[in-house]
């Protein structure tokens, strides 16, 4: 198209007729912005069929815009003015609605708890209606248009979103794009032989193609769900990347795109602010590859983004892609072709690096890998976290390890052994997850407090170790709160909750030890959160204070710039945060059982002046005017500013 061509008159007329002059013109202007991206992205996947598909999906977007409730349109307006609205100083929180509060209505009764922590972003784990029995923590959805009846109804969800919005809290909900439960009506129709719905999934008459694909497919759950295909009673095979009851959708079928777009737009209109797109890397499959991060997966996400921008510009898409840093950045739209994609993605690398530094008392690997990263594009950002509902995969990059003289494979083995508690001198009480019988690789399950040594210290009644563990928990959060991105607190971590000793009591959970770290919220323990003589009180107070300090300066906003500073002490992680509206903040985190010294020349590199003041510091040391060389107590941190 030539520059200066007038906006598409047909779309404009239709939009003005449906939405009125103001909103219709705005819709047409947005269409003008996204139409090439939309067409090109769809053409990459659907070829010539993309032309007609664009017409149909733009109509769906217009329908969704017309159905959008007024309070949500108000949010859209405000967020179009400030598209980085979610990248401010807010703190995030993740929980399972049922394990946190029984039901969605129950969640609404605990908003004060969240407000105390400064939460402005609430991620509720999968809440759409799952299959009965084993359902992978809700990631096997039977009906995308219904809430799990045990949690409540769609009306309850809308009501909760409304009360959250009144408090300025954005609601994030999961949408599983890659697969449905085999009990979903599409899958049932496919099983019954309906050709339209058979084309929603990937069936194979025999093992020929599955074998060919499996030559290059890694296994996600090698222990509890080996292989990527499942044989049906009819003898044929269906693609199941995860469990046998999770059938992968065939996104090369435009009907799948339209159906899932409908699901996404309806969720947005129920008042969801952020949609977590589960297993995003898996949407495109190509023979001879690992079937992750393929160009089709990106094109599909770009098309979904173009359409949500069109219909509901206030909606944020978050990619759940637990992949290496080089594969990750494209999910935020940093491609050669620069088409906008998701606005948020998980910073898995930071999490792994923190646990690595904690076990080794050495930040060299963290500083090496975190310093060579490309910043997130403007208007996008990370979610940072100490723990989440999944296991920790020991993703240590070969070249980063090599750069500091570590053997990557033995370091990965060390970390898995350390956190499973198999290593002499380990304070951790985690468990191995998915030991791969072929490669021997192991991942780790466990709550933050148990991995950081609080569980072992309390059991041993070792006061000094309890203190050290509490400091380690605070230290880990200090980095997650200050590194850039929305810091996500994982339910229970705010009170130092330990592993669920009875995680395998429910037969549907028994072969998945990720339930070790998916406990019921211990509200009895949480009642002590204001009592500084308890572990609960100490962790909670630490997180409240971190949230407050974070919110006190634009330099700690999620989208402020981050720079890792290399300095003389390999036990202290140093990074600077910078924002044009505020003084820079230098964050120092001491990963050592011994006090550490930091030389004054780090101040020059950081640009915080020769006599910085303390913005916030660890409970281990509340000195207001530090002397140089700076002495940092064991497992402590300090945030310095001009
Ligand atoms: C996600 O994780 C969820 O977080 C898991 O809880 C689900 O079991 C899974 O999807 C299936 O729905 O492989 O080990 O790059 O790492 O999608 C967890 C993304 C997983 C994958 C991720 C997946």
Automatic annotation (TrEMBL):
SMART domains per record: Aamy (SM00642)
Top enzyme category: transferase
CDD domains, alphabetized: AmyAc_Amylosucrase
Pfam name, any one: Alpha-amylase
Keyword Electron transport annotated: no
Alphabetized GO MF terms: amylosucrase activity
Swiss-Prot/TrEMBL keywords: Glycosyltransferase, Transferase
Membrane spanning stretches: none
Keyword Disulfide bond: no
Enzyme Commission number(s): 2.4.1.4
Ranges where the Glycosyl hydrolase family 13 catalytic domain occurs: 96-550
Cross-referenced PANTHER family: ALPHA AMYLASE CATALYTIC REGION (PTHR10357:SF213), ALPHA-AMYLASE FAMILY MEMBER (PTHR10357)
Name the UniProt record assigns to this protein: Amylosucrase
